[in-house]
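> call design_seq(struct)
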């Protein structure tokens, strides 16, 4: 039996600070969750007409179970899915609802496909105007999830989704129905294709004009070639690791390949576990109580330990606020100082997520962090009480699903290392502050010499303008490339990953290069130092709007500085350039999102476009809570 080591003092201190900061809003959220359970989600509240409508199309056996003495009936599960057959990561989800219904029926329950949510792919929209819808799609997904669950027919829910905004959106929606248990069901990664280093090399050749479109398309098609999640460690695969460490997945299920017997067995078992978590069972686990301050700190620590996506400095903040919990970038920064980097997966290394899984995967990372005192062990998971349950991996034993301990030793020390032998003693994420605002920078893939760049600024209002300047030969020097008016209120905060090959090429030519932007750089941000998510954004009074070409700018990840080296008197007198809202107002559906742009909060607040009533202790009091069974 494992004896839990003492919790690291910094992990404890950050958690205690979050608990104190969130005391009023978290208490209000929990009161609302408990009141909702007591009054509004049980099927006994529905009229006979309501219930008849909801069950009309169900198969006869399931309908009989649901309608017979429905106040005492067996659990009915909601299925909320991001399935579509255009996107490789979500195409495998097509068969999941039937598997879930079969798994539920085996334990005397029923399941219904409650609703679908949109799923857009940043890989398809990268560099296109449609990318300006991407971040806001997270909140649309959260609202679509709430609509799916609003029929009050369900005792628990299973959430099927994988990629960038989809999993955070599903989780925000799930937390709005925090009285229901939640199980997240992944699809798994595609098999490995073209090596990541080779893919990056072809992209840089294309940016330099040395490769044609045919060569580029062949490389991309060889990398992204089949069903499943893209295999680099971007936001999609970071999502999956976070669901593991937050206990929302069955243990070890994140990176099991689609189209395998094990994947099907895990999906059916997810339904059976959801039934066991329902209120009528002894293991009742409502997601609103399960996801707490400790769960969020665990998620941040695992993200840092694996060099995960910078997008989660936005998404985890938004998820936390949906549960009445306040997390900020200072928490990420402080935890990063003590959490070691245990994984090198592209773009932080050459291996892909399949190599990571084969080397030991999520179970290995969680156990190493637990044994180092860097995760809270005493949390609830869908597998039961205690995070140690998530250190196991699934397998089929004569066709039956079973679990065993994750590998004790890494099977490839170039990909995955123990906490006593990390790639780096810290997690490689820094908070930058200065007269340009607050930003985050990911340094886990940077060489030490690249962590400080001080150079003249070249200021652009779009990534297209930067790429055109490069093609004209205007960027062949040391520079800090500033791309502004890319924040949530300006244009929806698109990812600017299209800049990576160009800036990487300049860096490879010996130029000292950094990027500063109020936009995002995606989960694939890597070797170019990038101060991203600058807050306040330029369109909302941020200092980036004051910058001019030639201003000296320092991006210093060692000291945590983001500074324009302009005399203070001159800086304060300088007028800010106004945004041009018309440039992003129309086309590809952007006009439908105008209200969201106006409502968007800052990146450090999660860039949410809808209010969080639990944030405000002055909000109207919640209904009287009823005790959970």
């Amino acid at each position: 039996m494992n004896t839990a080591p003492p919790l690291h003092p910094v992990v404890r201190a950050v958690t205690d600070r979050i608990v104190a900061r969130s005391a009023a809003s978290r208490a209000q959220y929990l009161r609302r969750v408990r009141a909702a359970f007591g009054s509004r989600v049980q099927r006994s509240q529905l009229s006979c007409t309501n219930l008849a409508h909801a069950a009309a199309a169900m198969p006869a056996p399931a309908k009989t179970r649901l309608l017979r003495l429905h106040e005492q009936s067996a659990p009915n599960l909601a299925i909320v899915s991001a399935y579509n057959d255009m996107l490789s990561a979500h195409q495998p989800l097509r068969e999941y609802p039937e598997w879930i219904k079969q798994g539920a029926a085996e334990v005397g329950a029923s399941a219904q496909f409650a609703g679908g949510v949109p799923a857009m792919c940043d890989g398809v929209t990268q560099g296109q105007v449609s990318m300006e819808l991407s971040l806001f799609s997270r909140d649309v997904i959260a609202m679509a999830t709430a609509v799916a669950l609003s029929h009050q027919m369900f005792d628990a829910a299973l959430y099927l989704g994988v990629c960038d905004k989809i999993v955070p959106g599903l989780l925000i929606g799930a937390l709005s129905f925090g009285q229901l248990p939640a199980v997240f069901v992944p699809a798994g990664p595609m098999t490995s294709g073209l090596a990541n280093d080779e893919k990056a090399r072809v992209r840089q050749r294309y940016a330099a004009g040395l490769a044609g479109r045919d060569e580029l398309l062949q490389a991309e098609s060889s990398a992204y070639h089949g069903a499943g999640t893209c295999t680099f460690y971007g936001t999609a695969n970071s999502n999956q690791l976070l669901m593991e460490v937050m206990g929302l997945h069955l243990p070890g299920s994140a990176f099991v390949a689609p189209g395998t017997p094990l994947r099907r067995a895990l999906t059916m078992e997810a339904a059976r576990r959801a039934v066991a978590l329902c209120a009528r069972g002894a293991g009742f686990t409502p997601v609103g109580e399960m996801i707490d301050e400790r769960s969020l700190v665990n998620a941040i620590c695992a993200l840092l330990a694996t060099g995960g996506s910078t997008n989660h400095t936005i998404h985890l903040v938004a998820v936390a606020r949906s549960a009445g919990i306040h997390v900020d970038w200072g928490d990420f920064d402080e935890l990063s100082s003590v959490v070691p980097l245990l994984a090198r997966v592209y773009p932080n290394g050459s291996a892909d997520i399949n190599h990571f899984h084969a080397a030991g995967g999520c179970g290995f990372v969680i156990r190493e962090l637990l044994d180092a005192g860097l995760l809270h062990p005493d949390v609830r998971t869908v597998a039961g009480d205690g995070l140690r349950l998530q250190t196991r991996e699934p397998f089929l034993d004569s066709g039956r699903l079973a679990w065993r301990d994750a590998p004790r030793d890494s099977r490839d020390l170039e990909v995955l290392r123990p906490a006593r032998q990390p790639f780096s003693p810290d997690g490689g994420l820094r908070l930058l502050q200065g007269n340009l605002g607050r930003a985050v920078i990911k340094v886990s893939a940077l060489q030490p010499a690249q962590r400080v760049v001080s150079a003249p600024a070249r200021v652009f209002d779009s990534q297209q303008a930067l790429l055109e300047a490069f093609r004209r030969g205007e960027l062949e020097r040391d520079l800090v490339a500033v791309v502004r008016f890319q924040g949530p209120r300006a244009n929806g905060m698109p990812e600017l990953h299209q800049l990576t090959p160009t800036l990487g090429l300049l860096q490879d030519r010996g130029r000292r290069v950094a990027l500063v932007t109020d936009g995002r750089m995606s989960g694939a941000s890597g070797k170019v130092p990038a101060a991203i998510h600058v807050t306040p954004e330029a369109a909302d009074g941020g200092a980036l709007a004051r910058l001019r070409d030639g201003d000296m700018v320092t991006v210093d990840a060692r000291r945590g500085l983001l500074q324009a080296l302009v005399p203070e008197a001159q800086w304060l007198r300088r007028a800010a350039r106004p945004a041009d809202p018309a440039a992003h107002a129309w086309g590809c559906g952007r006009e439908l999102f105008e209200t969201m742009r106006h409502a968007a909060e800052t990146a450090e607040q999660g860039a949410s476009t809808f209010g969080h009533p639990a944030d405000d202790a002055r909000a109207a009091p919640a209904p009287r809570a009823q005790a959970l069974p």
